[in-house]
Amino acid sequence: MNVSAMAVDNGVNVEALMGAREALANAPEAARFRWRATCDWMHGTHSRATVSGFFGLGQEQQRKTEFRFDADHPEVFASEDRGATPVEYVLVGLGACLTAGIAAVAQHRKIQLRSVSATIEGDMDIQGILGMDGDIRNGFDGIKVKFRVDADASPDDIKALVAQSQKRSAVFDIVTNPTNITVEVA
Amino acid sequence: MNVSAMAVDNGVNVEALMGAREALANAPEAARFRWRATCDWMHGTHSRATVSGFFGLGQEQQRKTEFRFDADHPEVFASEDRGATPVEYVLVGLGACLTAGIAAVAQHRKIQLRSVSATIEGDMDIQGILGMDGDIRNGFDGIKVKFRVDADASPDDIKALVAQSQKRSAVFDIVTNPTNITVEVA
3-class DSSP state for residue B40? Predict the structure, then answer.
């Protein structure tokens, strides 16, 4: 019996996730989720978003808390900087997705994490959003993520851990592959 | 003189943005921006991100405020729901980007906005992130954005306004087109 392996606890309930996999294999329609945010314009480039309920496991799911997010443009764009910029929210989501994945995969692989931190950087030529040059895209030219992971594992095992998180990450997929967006005006 | 048109004020300093365009046309290297977030693992799938400085206009830019964001998975994934999910952060960024764009374009077109609100919904089959079926992607199948805009403009002008915001949106571009991400482990 490997006592140290049994004691691994990153706070992720892998057994529940494995149970969910089995349950969803028998009821794949329950795997259809719909995530939601609402956004209200405040003033200038400042808006406020709320995130609360979502649909999943065949029914509407309510949270105990409603999360609120202010977004704005910074002062160098003659705005009031009342929140992170929209593109920074994408970087936040990417970092969070990869980090949660690292914790989950580490738990599954019986690797005890001590700390995980990341820097997520997105390069952009703002001539794109300003409409100055049609050959310059609006979004990021590219994104660089740097992880520092302190864990009971070899450097190779840590690299494999991060690679597996990347492979299963929703936001990594959203940013690296195209997704169709329909915009309607009521 | 069109007094009502002159009185249009959505809180966006379009003159400054036009000035920036002119200045950047003469110094395109100043248009290179680098947006940043850092992310620290807390426990389980819970992480905390910070957004503060960024690089742009040829130098490091500091903000007065540091923005912090908690992210987590919800209770139906056996997590503690201590923040919005990573994919909801992407929806927040998308809604905020399109909304700021609507305010800016409306100002430029001398359309007075009274209110703008949006619902942003992303559909996902979680068999993807659970690794149950290689043909199901990790990210969204598709995203639907519904805007309600109350403004001094015809329905056609409002539709054109939203369409122009979409055309110049950084996050719309990031989600609908592929972006390269490099992940390194220190």
Answer: strand
